[in-house]
Amino acid sequence: MKKFLAGSLMVLALGVLGHGAWADEVVGPGKKVTLDYTLIVDNKQVETSIGKAPLSYVAGNRMIIPGLESQLNGMHVNEEKTVNVAAKDAYGEVDPKDFKEFPLTALPKGMVPKVGMVLMATAPDGSRFPAKISALRGDKVELDFNHPMAGKDLTFKVKILKIENNP
After folding, report:
1. Out of 34-43, 83-92, 114-123, 156-165, which region has the weakest mean confidence (pLDDT)?
2. With contact defined as beta carbons under 8 Å apart, do 77 and 26 qualify?
3. Which residues contact 86 (CB under 8 A, 6 or more apart)?
4. What is the distance between the alpha carbons of residues 116 and 167, in angstroms, rounded to a whole number?
5. In angstroms, rounded to a whole number, what is the distance separating the alpha carbons of residues 46 and 95?
6. How is residue 43 annotated by DSSP?
7. How far is CA 51 from the centre of its chain?
8. Residue 39's closest CA among 30, 52, 26?
9. 82/148 Cα distance (integer angstroms)
């Protein structure tokens, strides 16, 4: 009887331990991940989810920048990490081909353009996107259509809050 009871307790203990390890989800393809993050660029905090709604994404679905996603894989709930993402793995390097020159008359009437000013441009399909004035040359304006974070290395401080199976 003692052998049976000891064997049963051993099986029960292994079952509980095995279940605990199985239930410890990790970030990986197809998992819905919820996290808090703080984004730091050029040693300045530019964005955070702390005190706001956390970020949720499905791993492997290209919903966040690739350099961040790859470094979150394998993390566990409540794990915290500082992730450095090179520009090439974030929003890319600054592309010189994304600087375009236009006549000043193409700007809205009455606008006084200044270098650094951000305008909303409209594509032929109706989508809108930002363009920054990068230079003024006589009667011409140069617009930078690169993503505002292009060429920037990013640092994220992250904490995984929840990992779920994605239905």
Report:
1. 114-123
2. no
3. 67, 153
4. 44
5. 23
6. T
7. 18
8. 52
9. 22
Whether pLDDT at 129 is above 90: no
Phi, psi for residue 30 in degrees, rounded to 5? 85, -10
Going by C-beta distance under 8 Å and a sequence separation of 6 or more, which residues neighbour residue 161? 34, 35, 36, 54, 77, 78
Residue 30, sorted as left (phi over 0), alpha (psi -120 to 50) or beta, turns out to be left
Structural tokens at position 127 = 């989508």
Residue type at position 40: I
In terms of Cα–Cα distance, which of 160, 157, 106 is closest to 133? 106
> What's the predicted TM-score (pTM) here?
0.75
Residue with tokens 């292994």: 14
CA-atom Rg of the chain in angstroms: 25
Q: Which residue has the tokens 């470094």?
A: 71
The token duo for 39 is: 């984004």
